[in-house]
Amino acid sequence: MLTPTPQITIRSALSGDGERLAEIFYQAFESIAQAHGFPVEPPSREFTRFKVLEMLSSDGYAGLVAERDGELLGSAFIDERSGIAGVGPVTVDPASQDAGIGRALMEAALERERERGAAGVRLVQTAYHYRSLALYAKLGFTVREPLSVVQGTPPALAVPGRSVRPAAERDLLACARLCVRAHGHDRTGELRDAIAARTARVVERPERICGYATGFGYGWHAVADTNDDLTALLSSADAFMGLGLLVPSRNARLLGWCLEHGLRIVQQSTLMTIGLYNEPAGAYLPSILF
Predict the structure, then answer these.
(1) If 0-12 CB within 10 Å is exposed, 13-18 middle and 19+ buried, where does residue 133 land?
(2) With 190 labelled, which of 1, 20, 99, 169 sits at a CA distance of 20 to 30 A?
(3) pLDDT tens-digit profile of 99-136?
(4) How far apart are CA 4 and CA 236, in angstroms?
């Protein structure tokens, strides 16, 4: 006689879940990276703890958890600061993987965004993790862009005719227009938070703002009119945080610039989407969400 499998329950994440979810976050990425011989994406357990607690305390994020008999098995977080929802991280305890938990979390996340009326849902998938690629494809996600994760020392270069400065609240409208021209939607909520955190910068030509970055690294995005505008921003960075920059691999000129200036490719990732998607215009860097 078969023993029934206990039911997996999906519910909203609570502040008291933070410590356990942070540990699952780290262990899940550590186990898959070690299995494939790649660097672990979150830099430390201290980082995953900080990030999970930050998301749990923010009105801009939704958190879902999977549990069975009161035991936390995994979670999915959704950035809801714009009309496009960014899913991630989605993590499952390594001891409980391959049991449908990741799929249950993703289905609940997609249902939430349908009910919320999000124009689209996006995520960035780690390319060597074939199981997650297959899952997202089964759920209706479309591959949109191969991404090269690059790391190294930012080149201290000056781009003629461009100046870079910290972003301010007065720049939000101009930056929103840039993002809409590039992607068909804005990301003002993220930029506003980055301005408050003092990580955001804009690049200007004499007549106008021509690009912005919410920061430099895995957790931030950038949009610019041209590659020169974007490289001016990158040249102003003190460091590329986390695993590195996510560079659209089809932008041969930008990827070539990175490699010519000593940056190295450390990993491949994949941008995937459901719903609204415009072929990007201009130059851009996605974050680990999209």
Answers:
(1) middle
(2) 20
(3) 899 999 999 999 999 999 999 999 999 999 999 999 99
(4) 58
Q: Give buried/exposed letters for 64-83 (b at 16+ CB in 10 A, else e).
A: bbbbeeeebbbbbbbbbbbb
Could you tell me the CA-to-CA distances from 5 to 10, 69, 110, 207 in Å, in that order?
Answer: 16, 11, 25, 65
SS3 72: strand
Domain ranges of the chain: 9-118, 150-285
Residue 70 amino acid letter? G
User: Can you name the CATH fold of 150-285?
Assistant: Aminopeptidase (3.40.630)
How long a stretch of residues is the chain? Answer: 290
Q: Is the pTM of this model over 0.90?
A: yes
Give the pLDDT of residue 98: 81
What does the pLDDT read at residue 6? 67
Rounded Cα gap, residues 265 and 6, in angstroms: 43
| 262, two tokens | 């000593």
Q: What is the DSSP pairing of strand 208-213 with strand 222-224?
A: antiparallel
Strand ranges, E, within 174-253: 201-205, 208-213, 222-224, 245-248
* CATH architecture classification, 9-118: 3-Layer(aba) Sandwich (3.40)
Same fold, 9-118 and 150-285: yes
Rounded distance, CA 268 to CA 253, Å? 18
Read off the DSSP letter of residue 242: T
CA 115 to chain CA mean position, Å: 22
Decide: 21 and 13 in contact? Cβ < 8 Å. Answer: yes
Nearest to 254 by CA among 286, 276, 277, 219: 286
